[in-house]
Amino acid sequence: MTAVAAPLSSRGPVRLRLPQKARSGLLVLAGLAVLLGAWIIAAGTVGASAKIIPQPWTVVHALFADGFYGQSLTGTWWEAIRGFFFGNVAAVVAGATCILWPRLRGFIMQLAAATYSAPAVAIGPILIVFVDPDTTKVVISALSVFFVSASGILLGLSSASASSLELIHAMGGNTLFGLRKVRLRFAVPAAAAGIALSAPGALLGAIVAEYLGGDSGIGVAMVQAQQAFEVPRTWALALLATLISAAGYIVVSLIARRFSFEMINNDAAVGRAAPRLKRYGWRRTGIPVGKVAAGVVIVCAVWYALIWALRLDSYLAKTPGDILAFLTVSEGAAEHRSIIFGALGITLRDALAGYLVGSAVAIVAAISIQFSTVIEAMFMPIAMTLRSIPLVALTPLVGLVFGRDLIGVAVLTATITFVPTLVNLTVGMKQMPRSAEDLLHAYGLGWRQAVAVRTMFALPSLVTSARIAIPGAILGAVLAEYLATATGLGHLIALSSANSDFSTLWAAVTVTTVLSVVFYALLSRLESAAVRRLSP
């Protein structure tokens, strides 16, 4: 029998499909067009009377007409590059130390969380007393990088194939050999993601340091623009800082992609939580509490040693004992506690409001993305751009639009919370086991049940995002209070710094840092419990 081809007229309609990259690019452009349209509408309605939201073309004109941004950018960029380098070197050393000496892992990561949680606006005035302004800017930039990079590097080093490590051990290789030959290769994707995310943090740290003291840089230009109420210039500087941060993120991501490769893991227990020995009686709580206590003792010992070794003046540098006495037994201790913890209550209120709003919006967005690839392609790049906006650049804009009260601070902290929560939830929902997805289809369950099941499997991701978002929300609230409001710990830090009240300054920094580290430790335990509960 001879097969006869059907005439063209009898065939179905010919559908032209764009390549995946071209389609994704068009969707990203569509998302940017929606964002630009919303900006134009807001500038023509909400911001028209108050003149707080200029039109995009006005901002672009200011960007090119002012003509002084190049010099400001050069200084800030050089500070950020050095902070990025030193912060990531320290992160690599910390990650390798955690692998080579696992007992130090908890202490090192809590210390990293403390460096991330300590408000830069409070550290800056302390550092600038002991070192020159340029070194202060680099140190603050490096501290803004360290925790994010260390988290990604440690995650990558810990994801190595167990069978490969066991093979090296069986052949007589030690932990260092396994680190060099196996773990480093497996660590590339996660470590690259962490290092890329830290790039905007380096610029943020440099700008914050310039806010605190300097004669040039983007931070100084922002202060001058806000004091003169130059709204287009303020927006232009914020746009410039965002573009530079996004460029740093993209460049690091592309370099990492060039050196990354697909790792095939043949372990039978991929995705399964590591078995843990059950603890009974006092061991269940005694051992974790003992580790925390040991960490506190080590931190205090290092604190005392640094003050003694550097011969720091007791008027400027306060020891843990000085801070404890200031809050408990010194003259006026009750008043000191009232001031510190009263301001802390306001900061926690601001941070909690922003965290809840940002998380709620992120959950809705993550659920929407599960049912529409178009929404994901259009708006995920925009969401990642939000991560690149330096807080110092965003704060004055939020203050102009939403005011300098609870609403403005909550909007700022919601923006900080939104991105990590959205990214982690989106990944977590997509990692639902295939067997669970097959059951949903087999029983014909609706979208509500599908959302409920996906959300259940994404709970560890939600806790993981909270571990970063909650300290970030507290940090954002402190920064907003420092720059825009007259309440909270941020305002207290500004006053104590201006009045050289170093006891109050050190106490405020210590309370904020300890609280953030406590949240981090609690959420780490919740994350471990959630992973064990939902692991196959």
Automatic annotation (TrEMBL):
Location within or outside the cell: Cell membrane
Mitochondrion keyword on record: no
Record GO biological process: transmembrane transport
Occurrences of domain ABC transmembrane type-1 (ranges): 69-256, 340-523
Transmembrane segments: 25-48, 80-101, 113-131, 143-165, 186-209, 235-256, 289-310, 352-371, 406-427, 457-484, 504-523
Stored Gene3D superfamilies: MetI-like
Keywords carried by this UniProt record: Cell membrane, Membrane, Transmembrane, Transmembrane helix, Transport
Family recorded in the similarity comment: Belongs to the binding-protein-dependent transport system permease family.
Protein name per its UniProtKB record: ABC transporter permease subunit
Organism: Lacisediminihabitans profunda
